[in-house]
Amino acid sequence: LSERIGSTLDRVKGRGRLSEDNIKETLREVRMALLEADVALPVVKEFISQVRARAVGQEVLKSLTPGQALVKVVNDELVRIMGENREPLNFRGRPPVVILLAGLQGAGKTTSAAKLARHLMEAEKKKVALVSTDVRRPAAIEQLETLSGEIGAGFYRAAEGTAPKKIADQAMDFARKQHADVLIVDTAGRLHIDEELMQEVQDIHAAVEPLETLFVVDAMTGQDAARSAAAFGEALPLTGVILTKADGDARGGAALSVRQVTGKPIKFMGVGEKTDALEPFHPDRVASRILGMGDVLSLVDEVQSKVDKEKADKLGRKLKKGKGFSLNDFRDQLEQMQNMGGVGALLDKLPGAGKLPPGAASQFDDRTISRQVAIINSMTKEERRKPAVINGSRKRRIAQGSGVQVQDVNKLLKQFTQAQKMMRKMGKKGGMKKMMRGLQ
Ligand code: GDP
Ligand code: MG
After folding, report:
1. Please, which of 72, 175, 227, 253 could form a disulfide with 38 given CB 3.0 to 4.6 Å?
2. Yes or no: is domain 97-280 CATH 3.40.50.740?
3. Does the pTM exceed 0.80?
4. How many of the other CB atoms lie within 10 Å of CB of 187?
5. Domain 307-439 indexed as CATH 1.10.260.30
6. Closest alpha carbon to 314 in 340, 327, 332
7. CA separation, residue 94 to residues 98, 182, 267 (Å)
8. What is the pLDDT of residues 234-245, one digit of tens each?
9. Which ligand is nearest to the CA of 113?
10. Ligand 1, residues 216, 273, 276: which to mutate, most atoms within 8 A of Cβ?
11. Bigger pLDDT: 427 or 1?
């Protein structure tokens, strides 16, 4: 697919401005890409017309070909739509603040309830209580109870035969008595949208008055995601979306569909079955996944627009002067890699990357990078300058602050030492400049 886009892009090369005419063919390819990514058809149509409106008449910068300019418009538009109004969870209310999860059966509500609870406990230091109002599936309540036990969150268990709305009421009392900051309410789902389900979840909503009503949707459901999103969006005043099973979805189309249909931001992404497999949603990464922009053109484009040349020059100068490569520099590099999307592809382009130890590229997949950046962010200024001071208790603190294990902190420090060595070598040979030039 990226090849196809690449070849049409070549054809629109060499014209000063983007026009209806010279983007027509490429837009058709983009349309195909979106459909292949399983974006719902109405959403594709709307998106294409938005991109067309934005692109036509746009001047093509000297350093860019028209094709690159167009891809950038497409990419930016995807990122803009999916990232718009993205805000952290709302806790501005009297505790316990309620988060309600709704969605079809099997979407991942119960799992997400536990993931969210763990995230809030670890990253936000909240006291969290959980409750399941799913009285239909026999094991549903036990499922959440077990998960709550695993993560050490409070769990409210109602008496057998209590109605869902009543359970929610009682759970509010329970959470208040426990002085919980947050109550997460899990609900029943159905295989298909039906009146009874919608009525039930509406009743629960009215009973607990949540500050966040999150629509939980399976990323793998593609086209259906748009349909269920529309139904839940009509029934409930949604405040956001949790996109689950993103780990199994290479295409990412559901993200755009659900965003467009509900108009609500995707707040989190589920990336596995375990309770720690929850990530903030990264529109830029999903955008490049939807477009399949791992090709050379987009790489060059991304690099041109995103590598902060000043930072690179500064780092180069610093290395020349023989000054140390600090954890701050390492973090800057990691963030740049992240901005550029496919890091594996980038490493391939770097002169000297062949000298990296085997498996080095896989240390830098997007998820790992976010974690690495979070770890560095949890360090004090002193620690970043002088990693030698990081002893066992500091490691534990850093791990806790960034929601990882101590061994992850150790791993990061080891990688940093490796990077430092590499930088030292390059600094000596003046290789940094060469490397940056190689990138452009
Ligand atoms: P519910 O019916 O909406 O409560 O869905 P569950 O939370 O019970 O999840 C249904 C299935 O999807 C379970 O087997 C989960 O382990 C799985 N699941 C949920 N979220 C994710 C995810 O982000 N990634 C993967 N791979 N599986 C998930
Ligand atoms: Mg469930």
Report:
1. 253
2. no
3. no
4. 24
5. yes
6. 332
7. 10, 10, 22
8. 999 999 999 999
9. 1
10. 273
11. 427
